[in-house]
């Protein structure tokens, strides 16, 4: 499984994580592919070898 990590400036509470989950889950194929590190302001997305979602880094950046 491949992982991609993004720095999310200003992400510091559970409410912001909930908003990001709501917006990003449909793009990446489900909430279970998203993990958040609030203390360090990071989002990690897991992509499987057979991932058919078609998202890329730029799509995620625009959504955030």
Tell me briefly what this model is.
The chain is α+β, with helices and mostly antiparallel strands and 64 residues long.
Report on this model:
Helices cover 34% and strands 25% of the residues. Strand 2 and strand 3 (42-47) form a beta hairpin. It has a single domain (2-63), classed as 2-Layer Sandwich (Alpha-Beta Plaits). The chain starts with a strand and ends with a helix. The model has no long low-confidence stretch (mean pLDDT 90). The protein is built from 2 helices and 3 strands, in the order βαββα. By secondary structure, the chain is an alpha+beta fold. It has helices at residues 14-28, 57-63, and strands spanning 2-7, 34-37, 42-47. A 3-stranded antiparallel β-sheet has the order 1-3-2, covered by helices on one side.
Which structural class best describes the helix and strand composition?
Answer: alpha+beta
Strand order of the largest sheet: 1-3-2
Radius of gyration: 11 Å
Give the helix proportion (percent range): 25-40%
The poorly predicted ranges are none
Listing every helix as H and every strand as E from the N terminus to the C terminus, the arrangement reads: EHEEH
- CATH topology description: Alpha-Beta Plaits
How many domains is the backbone divided into?
A: 1
Q: Which word captures the global form?
A: globular
Mean pLDDT: 90
Strand percentage lies at: 25-35%
First and last CA, distance = 23 Å
Assembly classification: single chain
CATH architecture: 2-Layer Sandwich
């Amino acid at each position: 499984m491949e992982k991609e990590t993004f720095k999310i400036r200003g992400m510091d509470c559970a409410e912001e994580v909930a908003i990001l989950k709501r917006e990003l889950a449909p793009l990446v194929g489900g909430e279970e592919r998203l993990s958040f590190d609030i203390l360090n302001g990071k989002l990690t997305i897991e992509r499987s070898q057979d991932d058919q979602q078609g998202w890329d880094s730029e799509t995620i950046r625009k959504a955030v």
